[in-house]
Specification:
single chain; seven-stranded mixed sheet; 7 strands; CorA_cytoplasmic_dom; Magnesium transporter CorA; coiled coil; MgTranspt_CorA/ZnTranspt_ZntB; metal ion transmembrane transporter activity
């Protein structure tokens, strides 16, 4: 899926990305599991090559942050929980080139959903690709902090159950391992 956003009065607004609507006015191009046509469109209209799946999965430090002719590249893990509450990390590729932020990911992620929701009502200070990148990382950190707080709360409850000897059904599985 291809989404594009432009700045209007320092606020992000979604562009209609129909075939006839050019991407040239976008400050942020967000791609989630893009198909070949979407990849080709970004390449032909904006001259931007996108990372391949093996490049996204490369965990070496040299592959996570680098600069080349295609721009500044950062690959970062983002936390998610699936429909069955299984936690995981998904790599997001960020590229900044010619004043535009490109994001490429394999799934919808809570931090991105939250950022898009907030962006509707808040103005950006400078309104550029670097500010977008930093805002997305700030949202990621807030989400991780919330997850850590939730885990801490669960551990506090579990420790009380263990220390007081009052085992409830909801902890049977955790205590039996």
């Amino acid at each position: 899926m291809l989404s594009a956003f432009q700045l209007e009065n320092n606020r992000l607004t979604r562009l209609e990305v129909e075939e006839s609507q050019p991407l040239v006015n976008a400050v942020w191009i967000d791609l989630v599991e893009p198909d070949d046509d979407e990849r080709l469109r970004v390449q032909s209209e904006l001259g931007q090559s996108l990372a391949t799946r093996p490049e996204l999965e490369d965990i070496e430090a040299s592959a996570r942050f680098f600069e080349d002719d295609d721009g500044l590249h950062i690959h970062s893990f983002f936390f998610f929980e699936d429909a069955e509450d299984h936690a995981g990390n998904s790599t997001v590729a960020f590229t900044i080139r010619d004043g535009r932020l490109f994001t490429l990911r394999e799934r919808e992620l809570p931090a991105f959903r939250l950022y898009r929701m907030r962006a509707r009502s808040q103005s950006m200070v400078d309104g550029n690709a670097y500010e977008l990148l930093l805002d997305l990382f700030e949202t990621k950190i807030e989400q991780l902090a919330d997850e850590i707080e939730n885990i801490y709360s669960d551990l506090e409850q579990l420790s009380r159950v263990i220390m007081e000897g009052h085992q409830g059904d909801e902890y049977d599985e955790a205590l039996s391992t």
